[in-house]
Amino acid sequence: MRNLPLKTASFRYVEKSFGEWLDILGYAHQTVYYLPAHVREFLHWLEKQGYTQLKNVDAPLIKTYYEKLRERANQRRDGALSNNYLNKHQQALKKFTDYLRQVGRIELPAIPMRWEQKDNKTITLLTVEEIQQLYKLTYDSSWYYSTRLSNEKMEAIQARDRAMLSIFYGCGLRRNEGIHLDLSDINFDKQLLHVRQGKGYKERYVPFNKADEKYLQDYIYDHRPNLIHDKREEAFFISYKLKRMQGQSLLLRLKMLMHWADNEKNVGLHTLRHSIATHLLQAGMSLENISRFLGHSSLESTQIYTHLVGVEQEREQPFSTIPKFEKVQLSEDEL
Question: In the annotation, is 148 catalytic?
Fold first, then answer.
């Protein structure tokens, strides 16, 4: 499906923007890949029927498309397309109509669904005060306790946690972008971070401020050497097992900080990215600059944060005091 050519520039644009919208909402990687692919198949079919504008799409046209799908032979095995495949197409087009409506483009006709989808996504955000609290916790040595590790290694893990916050919050990187980050990608002279493994293999440069520069330098020069055994290792995030950290390990570190903060919000690494986007918008940064900062290919993908800012401003944002937990023994996976 990805190989189906789209000649209409607006179709190519809206397919890419739809994928970014799904990514922002936190859908799984497979969903972010396959739903736009199903939409591409629909757009490709529209072009073959002579349609190049979504505003001309009506309910009978959509019905005709699904009738053609039901008649189409399965390209991988004998017989027709499976019901599961057809349902995925319906799911994709339904979610596509949600996207079009929310970004204010157009509204496609209602699609008769055989089943009701219950995967409405909500974006979790942390306030500025909650972010500050996470940073503060990384300086309290009483939280970092292990009978197996030296003080030097525990301090290195503290510094790595601050660097994690700086990369995913301060620089707004995606999960995979942070995982693949190397030492050579950080330019302290220009205060720029080179994202080589961006979404869609797009590279970009992300600026970081003086505070983040301090956290990154502190980790790289003073503490990271205590986590490695091979000086040639280029990975930025190093695990307790002396290897490049993976997303699950970084997520566990963030979850542990949230636990120590007695904060019950369900967060992921993308929560930090969403939070910096909303905080920059609240501080007056333009959507265009935030879009470039996040590496979005379309401004429409960034506009979702304008709604989130309005919602957050209606909520109370109390500063939670740091609770006094007793020391906890950390497992290897949490280090």
Answer: no
Domain contains 117: no
153 and 23 share one domain: no
Q: Select which of 175, 253, 273, 274 is catalytic.
A: 273
Evaluate whether residue 115 is within a structural domain: no
Kindly state whether residue 234 falls inside one of the protein's structural domains: yes
pLDDT, tens digit, for every residue of 66-84?
888 777 655 544 445 677 7
Angle formed by the axes of helices 128-137 and 269-282, nearest 10°: 130
User: Is residue 270 annotated as part of the catalytic site, yes or no?
Assistant: yes
Q: Would you call 324 a catalytic residue per the annotation?
A: no
More confident site: 202 or 193: 193
* Tally of CA atoms within 13 A in the half-sphere of 60 that contains its CB: 1
The residue from 40, 160, 180, 270 that is catalytic is 270
- Which CATH number covers residue 197? 1.10.443.10
In a domain, 119, yes or no: no
Residues 64 and 166 in one domain: no
Number of domains in the chain: 2
- pLDDT of 93-136, one tens digit each? 888 888 888 877 676 766 554 544 445 567 899 999 999 999 99
Which candidate, 260, 225, 259, 73, places its Cα nearest to that of 155? Answer: 225
